[in-house]
Each structure stands twice: as structure tokens, then as C-alpha cells.
Design goal:
The chain contains 16 helices and 17 strands. It has 458 residues and is α/β, with parallel strands linked by helices. It has two domains: 169 residues, Alpha-Beta Complex (Aspartate Aminotransferase, domain 1), CATH 3.90.1150; 247 residues, Aspartate Aminotransferase, domain 2. The strands form four sheets. It has an eight-stranded mixed β-sheet, sandwiched between helices. It has a four-stranded mixed β-sheet with strand order 1-2-3-16. A three-stranded antiparallel β-sheet has the order 14-15-17, with helices on one face. The longest helix is centred in the C-terminal third of the chain and has 22 residues. The protein starts with a helix and ends with a helix. The site of pyridoxal-5'-phosphate has 15 residues, from helix 6. Pyridoxal-5'-phosphate binds next to helix 6.
Length: 458
């Protein structure tokens, strides 16, 4: 297969001049300076644990110091030293229409002028609810919260109350926020009882969390047979983004649906990352599967703190004040976050939005794969909609254990090579990447050519 860039240069000769200029930029950014970021990080570390407000931002898994950002626009972010980057983190998913989108900003400014939060209902919330239910038809009702963590914690409480059971099944390598019963990893290989991932999580809480390997339907069936009347719910990232990009094997999600039905457990799709990111209706739409409950976040807030959980009417009716399951939030559904979400959903639901985003993202991973192949580097990559991932190994990667077989040293070298050339990737070998509608074909072509350059030196 020919390098996409070559094709692109041939078909668009007028882009050549631009490209040559960009190459000059690249040479200049080789001596990239990040001294201000370094100082800012030292200052932050005195008063904020590890200098950051969310651990993966600290760059520890790539053995370095984080880049402090001053502003962002479209596909670009700039750090406080003035370096420019093509951004494939997108605030870890929300920035799907590109950073600081003019329409989103004007809607947010306009609503903020009338008050930021009231702690009383607004019509905007109902509007967003209808919009979400329209695109995610498995949801009859929805409750808005402020983070994906909150959505996942709350949805489990409701599922446990509804089924009057306490155990849950989750998958190794799937992240559902940092709620106590979800911060659990599996032992090596076989399915095990929950062991807390973090000090401070009572072992009693974690022991109700059963963990199995992703894509292992047999292990899930065995778990259900072991605890036939005790499992309240099974929660899953229907395409994984939190141990790199991992796809469900054919029949896996269907199999989970059947097992949940057979054993009277609720099927929960955590689409905090995939919702409005892989396509309008999330993974459930792509696979034609109806979960009982769904969690949403990231894109639905368009960059504001907003998330949601919802699903079957009979289950959601248990939530206070219509039912006895308590869940509340001072800032839940505040007009600013809701408006940001509404405007973002309006943009992503325009015709062609996802087909263009999908093509761009595919162009990126095809180019990366091609660059790796030409340089003889074991590499695999995959994407769906505007979400992608890659591993430095031949694959296939079907679960977290497979993912961990990747060459992390090579990833780190690649990460720094790209960063120093002006491409900002997630600072971990086990995170997904995100393309936005603001990423042009030229951005993608430039990224591929820089990746080729970096891979040549690996
Ligand atoms: C990001 C994420 C969460 C947690 O959301 P926060 O808003 O960071 O609390 C939960 N589940 C999935 C699948 C996620 O990707």
C-alpha cells in the first residue's frame, strides 16, 4: 500500500508548498523548549498532589513532565512556552467539534450572562434530555450528573436497588470512573474475586465486584453460573478506550445481552467515551444491541462538566424523587454545561459529520500503519468514528493482557518524538486517541509524515 501522503501530494500539488513550509517548522521544533512548563509543574506540585488534578495528565507513564497548556483552537493546542501542537487528546474525548468552536462559545457566553447555575430546573435540561433520548433509543429516561464517575456510580446503585442484588461484573482494563466498587482489577488470567486497585477502597466493597477478561464470554457465563441469583448488573465499555482501543469480537456483546437476560441481570453500556464519538447512537447503535442502562459523558458536555445515566423507564423510575434510590447534585444540569452539550450535539448531528470524521480518522490510522510497516516496526491500529488506538505489537489485541504485551519503550520514544515535532498524543501506551471535525486532511497528512520520520528513528 502506498503512503497516503504521497497520494495526497500527487492529487493536491497546490498543497506541496504548504507542506514544505511545515517541514521547515518541524526542523525548528526539534529544539523544542518547555522550560516554562517545567517550572509551572514544579510550582503546581507544591500544592496539588503530583502537580495535576487527574493522574494521567502527569506524564508519568512516559517518564517525563507534563506540558502546561495556555490555549486551544480547532485542532491545535499551545503550551505556555508558545509551542503549537496538533492535538489528538481533545481533552480525553469531549473536544469532538474542535477546541473553542465559535458557535459553541457564543451559545455558552449568551446563556452564562443570564446566570451560571440556579439549583432549580430549566427548560434546557428537558431539551437536552429529548435530544439524548432521540439519538440513543434504548434510553426512555435520563438523569444528568456532572462527571462520568458520578454517572457510573449512580447507575450501579440504581441497578442494585432494582434487582435487589449486590454483585456486579466488570471487565479487566475497562475504566468506569473512580467509584469504590469500580476501582478493581482482576488477578492474572482467570476470573477472580475483586481486589481493590487503590488503598482506601474497603475490601468489602470491592468483593462484590467480579472481574473477567474482555471478550471472554465463557468466563462471563461461568461467573453467572457461580452466582446465579446474586449479580445485579454487568457493566462494560462496549468498545474499550481505557486500555487502548479494543473492539468486541463478533458475538461478544450479543452473548452478554443473552446471559444478562437469562440470569436476570441488567446490562449496562458505559458509553461515556464512545457515546456521540463512534457515531450518533454510540456502540449500541452500531451493533444493534439494547442495553438496559447507559452511561454518557465526555462529548455530551462538549467540554463542560456534564454526564448522564439512563435507560429503561421501569428502572429509572426508581431514582429519587420518583423512587427511593437517592442521587443528587448541586450543579447537575446547570444551564451553561447543558447549553454547551446541546450545541455540541447539534453540530455532531449535522449530515455527514460522522462520515467525514470517520474517514479522517481512518486516514490517520492507515497512514500510521503504513509508516510502521515501511519501517519494519510491529504495530497495529484500529478506529471507529473519531476514536482510535494503536499498539506497538502485531496484535490482535482482544483484552488488557494482550494490550500489555505491547512494546511500551517504543511507544515512549514515539510519543516524545511526536511531541517534539508538534503532535500531542495521549501520554500513555494504553489510552485511545481522538480526532475532531477541526482536523483537516492536511493536519492528518502532516501527522503521518511526522510519524514516518519518528518511526524511521526507532
Ligand atoms: C472517562 C470515562 C469515565 C469517567 O468519566 P469522568 O468524567 O472522568 O469521571 C467513565 N467511563 C468511561 C468509559 C470513560 O472513558
Amino acid at each position: 500500500m502506498r503512503l497516503l501522503l504521497e497520494t495526497w501530494l500527487e492529487t493536491c500539488p497546490e498543497n506541496l508548498e504548504n507542506w514544505v513550509i511545515q517541514q521547515k517548522d518541524v526542523k525548528m521544533t526539534q529544539q523544542v523548549q518547555r522550560s516554562k512548563s517545567k517550572l509551572a509543574f514544579e510550582e503546581a506540585s507544591k500544592v496539588i498532589p503530583g502537580g495535576v488534578n487527574s493522574p494521567v495528565r502527569a506524564f508519568r507513564s512516559v517518564d517525563g513532565d507534563p506540558v502546561f497548556i495556555s490555549r486551544a483552537k480547532g485542532s491545535r493546542v499551545w503550551d505556555i512556552d508558545g509551542n503549537e501542537y496538533i492535538d489528538y487528546v481533545g481533552s480525553w474525548g469531549p473536544a469532538i467539534v474542535g477546541h473553542a468552536h465559535d458557535e459553541v462559545l457564543s451559545a455558552v457566553f449568551a446563556v452564562a450572562r443570564n446566570g451560571i447555575t440556579f439549583g432549580a430546573p430549566t427548560e434546557l435540561e428537558t431539551k437536552l434530555a429529548y435530544s439524548v433520548l432521540n439519538y440513543v433509543p434504548s434510553m426512555d429516561m435520563v438523569r444528568f450528573v456532572s462527571s462520568g464517575t458520578e454517572a457510573c456510580m449512580s447507575v450501579l446503585r440504581v441497578a442494585r436497588a432494582f434487582t435487589q442484588r449486590s454483585k456486579i461484573i466488570k471487565f479487566e482494563g475497562c475504566y468506569h470512573g473512580h467509584g469504590d466498587m469500580l476501582l478493581v482489577k482482576a488477578g492474572s488470567g482467570a476470573a477472580t474475586m475483586g481486589v481493590p486497585d487503590s488503598p482506601g477502597v474497603p475490601s468489602g466493597t470491592a468483593s462484590d465486584t467480579l472481574t473477567v477478561a474482555y471478550n471472554d464470554l465463557g468466563a462471563v457465563a461461568a461467573m453467572f453460573e457461580m452466582y446465579p441469583n446474586e449479580i445485579a448488573a454487568l457493566i462494560i465499555e462496549p468498545i474499550v478506550g481505557n486500555s487502548g482501543f479494543i473492539r468486541p469480537v463478533p458475538g461478544f456483546l450479543e452473548g452478554l445481552r443473552a446471559l444478562c437476560d437469562q440470569f436476570g441481570a441488567l446490562l449496562i453500556f458505559d458509553e461515556v467515551m464512545t457515546g456521540f464519538r463512534v457515531g450518533l447512537g454510540g456502540v449500541q447503535k452500531l451493533h444493534g444491541i439494547k442495553p438496559d442502562l447507559t452511561c454518557l459523558g465526555k462529548v455530551i458536555g462538549g467540554g463542560m462538566p456534564l454526564a448522564a445515566y439512563g435507560g429503561r423507564r421501569d428502572v429509572m423510575s426508581k431514582v429519587a424523587p420518583s423512587g427511593p434510590v437517592y442521587q443528587a447534585g448541586t450543579l447537575s444540569g446547570n444551564p451553561v454545561a447543558v447549553t454547551c452539550g446541546l450545541k455540541t450535539l447539534e453540530i455532531v448531528s449535522q449530515p455527514q459529520f460522522f462520515s467525514i470524521l470517520t474517514t479522517r480518522t481512518k486516514m490517520l490510522i492507515d497512514g500510521l500503519k503504513d509508516s510502521a510497516q515501511k519501517n519494519g516496526i510491529p504495530f497495529c491500529a484500529d478506529s471507529e468514528g473519531g476514536m482510535f488506538g494503536f499498539f506497538f505489537q502485531n496484535g490482535p489485541v482482544k483484552n488488557f493482557a494482550d494490550a500489555k504485551k505491547s512494546d511500551v519503550t517504543q511507544f515512549k520514544k514515539f510519543f516524545w518524538g511526536m511531541l517534539n515535532r508538534g503532535v500531542y498524543l495521549a501520554p500513555s501506551a494504553f489510552e485511545a486517541g481522538f480526532v475532531s471535525a477541526a482536523h483537516t486532511e492536511q493536519d492528518i497528512a502532516k501527522t503521518i509524515s511526522l510519524a514516518f520520520d519518528v518511526m524511521k528513528g526507532l
